[in-house]
């Protein structure tokens, strides 16, 4: 017999549901970020964000971004959710030039890709 509740099953289910609910809220907290900013975005899916095929290992990251690029090629930029963090993919070449050259120091949280990885 449970201490606080009448059934051991309820005593197990209640904390389990609470843990699931808190985890769910943790993941989906920023899912409306791009919609709130009126920016074109890739709709996220719990718990993968907008890059489900990459997270599941079905699609290489570059091909995942290529699909996003092709789907939104008429936009200047597109928002997506990287698991749970809002991220942006710049599509317009002029905007990319501004971000990468003129305003680079304003974008401190950018990914860095090494075109020539070193052997371990």
UniProtKB/TrEMBL annotation:
Signal peptide interval: none
GO cellular component: membrane
Cofactor(s) listed in the protein's UniProt record: heme
Family per record: Belongs to the cytochrome P450 family.
Protein name, as recorded: Cytochrome P450
Membrane-spanning ranges: 12-28
PANTHER family in alphabetical order: CYP9F3-RELATED (PTHR24292:SF54), CYTOCHROME P450 (PTHR24292)
GO molecular function: metal ion binding; monooxygenase activity
Cellular location(s): Membrane
Domain of life: Eukaryota
Main subcellular localisation: membrane
Keywords, sorted A to Z: Heme, Iron, Membrane, Metal-binding, Monooxygenase, Oxidoreductase, Transmembrane, Transmembrane helix
């Amino acid at each position: 017999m449970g201490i606080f509740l009448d059934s051991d099953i309820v005593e197990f289910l209640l904390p389990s549901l609470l843990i699931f609910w808190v985890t769910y809220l943790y993941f989906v907290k920023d899912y409306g970020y791009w919609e709130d900013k009126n920016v074109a975005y890739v709709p996220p899916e719990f718990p993968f964000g907008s890059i489900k095929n990459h997270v599941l290992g079905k699609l290489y990251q570059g091909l995942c971004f290529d699909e996003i690029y092709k789907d939104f090629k008429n936009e200047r930029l597109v928002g997506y959710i990287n698991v749970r963090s809002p991220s942006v993919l710049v599509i317009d070449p002029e905007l990319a030039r501004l971000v990468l050259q003129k305003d680079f120091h304003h974008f401190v949280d950018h990914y860095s890709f090494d075109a020539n990885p070193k052997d371990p």
